[in-house]
Amino acid sequence: MRRAVSVFLNGMQPSRLAAVLTVWCLCLLYVLFQGGKTSLMLFSMVSLLSVYVIGAGFGGVRRVKAKRNILGDRDRRDQLHAGEQVRVRLDVNVPGLLPMPYLVVKEVLQRHNGDSWSFEDSIIPNMRGAGVLVFQTPPLERGRYAFAGTECISEDIFGIMEHRGRIEVNTEFRVLPRTVYIPKWNRNIHRSRLGGTHTTVSASRRETTQINGVRDYVYGDRISRIHWNATAKTGSWKSKEFEHESFPKTLIVLDGAQNAYVSDQQFEVAVSAAASLIEYGAKEHAGTGLFTATEEGKLFPPTEQAGERMRMIQHLVDVDYNRKGSLIAELERSYRHFPQGAVLLLISPMSGREASEVLRWVEARGMNPCFLQIMNPGGKPLRDESISILRSRGISCYSVSSLEELPAALGGGVA
């Protein structure tokens, strides 16, 4: 019974509906007991007004149709990054012949962790009942987003009755982690146990003596690099292109301990650092993998395929710090699938003393350890003397408190 009454009212306020019906009943009684042209005319006008006021709620508002489009700062929906604003365009079509002075639209954007943002604005439909609502979200953090049901509110031209409708337009999108360009990564991996194409002893990617092709001359190239035969044939300066030494395979381990991070912002820096290093591996054509040490750890073996790298980035959208056990126990469950002789970069807020035990475990498994310490953003910088001890052992260690500090730290700047 209540559901039937609710459907009949369709969002109309019972007090206003009762007021309209009361006026109509009084006019009806006036016609029955008084009679005459005046009472009949008044009753006809009130009846028409009542039919319009009540009937408007069963018209266009209940049958509103909408279409939503999502565009990022670069007009691309599939490449939204954290910190970007999203432009939303909602095309609304209100069927029906009754005039509608305005339409209030309420949108609710929900994040996968429960956060939500609400937007409210009004549309003035044209004669065909069509209207467009365009709004912009605040800068969004990484995560999965979805729009809840859209609520539409309208009133008749007299402002007597309010009508509500609800439409469902399923729209979901993902916001990728922030990334920063890393020009160079200095790694100390001279203690690698494997040779061949999986190791390198240089801090940057050096060229070999094997010619790989010919490229256009770039100002500053040495005379010994000039390819004279190609220059003579083409009439323009050409230089020799040499093959580069192969980088070792790199496995990035993101620590997802629940009690390790002081704030969500600190964990976001860690996630963004991992995403930036994955993109750096793509730029250098180096095999890069990812292991997220969360409650349900997931491993992506090192690869150079663009599709697998995008899977890693997409996985970082949903990752959270929810692990309660120790990091070594989580690594033990998956280390059989870790590549031997690879560089294992640990991204964690733990101190150098705590990380030392983990890095010893890495060395014992035949891999080359690196450590990226994520400090608390906005907190007081702490001097960790154990980091210096790790560096004295030949382990590359870096320390950052924000994503902007990462390129300088990896490139040999002051950590």
Shape: elongated
* Total of domains: 4
Give the termini separation: 69 Å
User: Under CATH, the topology of the largest domain is which?
Assistant: Rossmann fold
Give the low-pLDDT segments.
Answer: 1-8, 190-205
Count of discrete alpha- or pi-helical segments spanning 4 or more residues:
10
CATH superfamily of the largest domain: von Willebrand factor, type A domain
Just name the CATH architecture of the largest domain. Answer: 3-Layer(aba) Sandwich
Order of helical and strand elements: HHHEEEEEEEEEEHEEHEEHHEHEHEH
> What percent of residues adopt helix (DSSP H or I)?
25-40%
Average pLDDT level: 80
Rg, alpha carbons:
33 Å
Class inferred from helices and paired strands:
alpha+beta
Strand content: 25-35%
CATH class of the largest domain: Alpha Beta
Biggest pleated sheet? 6 strands, antiparallel
In total, how many beta strands? 17
Task: Please summarize what this structure is.
The chain is 29% helix and 27% strand. By secondary structure, it is α+β, with helices and mostly antiparallel strands. β12 (250-255), α5 and β13 (288-293) form a beta-alpha-beta unit.
What does this structure look like?
- The chain is of the alpha+beta class and 415 residues long.
- The chain has helices spanning 2-9, 14-33, 37-55, 228-234, 264-283, 306-318, 327-332, 352-364, 385-392, 406-410, and strands at 65-71, 87-93, 103-111, 116-123, 130-136, 143-147, 150-155, 162-167, 172-175, 207-216, 238-244, 250-255, 288-293, 298-303, 343-348, 368-374, 396-400.
- It folds into 4 domains: 2-58, no CATH class; 62-175, Coagulation Factor XIII, Chain A, domain 1; 196-200 and 246-410, Rossmann fold (3-Layer(aba) Sandwich), CATH 3.40.50; 214-244, no CATH class.
- α2 runs antiparallel to α3 (37-55) and α5 (264-283) runs antiparallel to α6.
- 29% of the residues are buried.
- This is DUF58 domain-containing protein.
- Residues 214-365 form the DUF58 domain.
- It comes from Paenibacillus lactis 154.
